[in-house]
Design brief:
Number of domains: 2
Oligomer: single chain
Largest sheet: 6 strands, mixed
CATH superfamily of the largest domain: Response regulator
Bound molecules: alpha-L-arabinofuranose
Number of helices: 11
């Protein structure tokens, strides 16, 4: 009985330690020998990922882990489960472990000033991946973050506006075409409030759509970048008295669009023709929906950032010059090119 109690206590203590580190696991190159590609020793990277909210995020995580393996970098990977405090804990534990370099995707833009100062004081370089941060007035990201690797979120949303306006002018939905004299009513599913992706895509969309005053937003709510919440929010909109007025759905990621498509079908409307739907990411699930003619278009956001992260890490540690942000090159897909592109998609 005593032995059993001791084992139980050890297990409980171990699970607390695991939680405090934000659920860290060795991944990628593991801790076995060899040297990192391009280095004369094996390097250690602490990486704080925000979670697994979408198909895109899973592809991003897989890319980071596979690239660490390829470069033979020891990766201490931590999943923050969408909580900023878990990211802080993980990063502080990376500092304590004296990792060579830190990579992280900030779940939200603000609140990072203190921890970035701690990383700087410890002399550890840091790569921000996918989402940027906003620091207190007068502080520049470039003074705290060694490199940023990710997409231009504003530009993605602007491309979405251009696609929508062109489609409404040339084709339209089952109710109307945009001849300039009618209102085009939009519902917007936003991502995690305060995240770089939500802030950037909202700014980009708002700025571009303002050029077309007959495009009116009638619904706007967060779906937290998840399929389940995209579906829930759309279900509520489809039950509202304004449901029939929705001409366009802009979802800030594919997962929310896919969830919303289920809700539109359940309400007896046709996604892709009664309601024109455009989203961002270009994951395989979006291609499936485009081939079913339920999603009209998706703007690409590249999650395969792992190789660029590892390559940049090595350059930083070798004190070679780097470009602070090399924007990802991205395409856009709709019913005209989805079928041809589908077999070549990697995520
Ligand atoms: O930050 C990138 C966004 O986060 C992707 O568009 C979305 O799918 C993800 O969860």
């Amino acid at each position: 009985m005593k032995k059993l109690l001791v084992v139980l206590m050890v297990l409980i203590a171990a699970s607390f330690a695991f939680a405090a580190g934000g659920g860290q696991q060795a991944a990628g190159g593991g801790s076995s020998g060899g040297v990192t590609r391009g280095m004369d020793r094996k390097i250690v990277m602490g990486y704080s990922q925000i979670g697994a909210e979408s198909e895109w995020r899973t592809a991003c995580t897989n890319s980071v882990k596979a690239a660490a393996e390829e470069w033979n970098i020891e990766l201490i990977f931590s999943d923050a489960q969408q909580k900023q405090e878990n990211q802080m804990q993980a990063i502080r534990s990376f500092i304590r472990q004296k990792v060579d370099i830190i990579g992280f995707t900030p779940v939200v833009e603000t609140g990072w000033d203190a921890i970035l100062q701690e990383i700087k004081d410890a002399g550890i370089p840091v790569i921000c991946v996918d989402r940027q941060v906003t620091l207190a007035a007068g502080k520049r990201q470039e003074d705290y973050i060694t490199a940023f690797i990710g997409s231009n979120m504003q530009a993605e949303a602007k491309k979405a506006v251009q696609w929508v306006v062109n489609y409404m002018k040339t084709t339209g939905n089952t109710k109307k075409k945009d001849d300039g004299s009618v209102d085009i009513n939009i519902a917007i599913l936003e991502g995690t409030t305060g995240s770089g992706a939500q802030v950037g895509r909202t700014e980009g969309w708002n700025e571009e759509i303002a050029k077309y005053p007959n495009y009116k937003t009638i619904f706007r709510q967060t779906g937290n970048f998840t399929r389940a919440e995209g579906q829930q929010v759309m279900e509520a909109w489809m039950k509202s008295p304004q449901a029939n007025d929705i001409d366009i759905l802009f979802a800030q990621n594919d997962d929310m669009a896919i969830g919303a498509i289920d809700a539109i079908n359940a309400a007896g409307k046709k996604p892709g023709s009664d309601i024109i739907i455009v989203s961002i990411d270009a994951v395989k699930g979006a291609f499936d929906a485009m081939l079913r003619k339920e999603l009209n278009a998706t703007i690409e956001c590249n999650p395969l950032l792992g190789p660029q992260v590892m390559d940049t890490a090595v350059k930083i540690l070798k004190k070679q010059s780097i470009t602070w942000w090399v924007e990802s090159e991205e395409g856009q897909f709709d019913w005209t090119n989805a079928e041809t592109a589908y077999p070549t998609r990697q995520y």
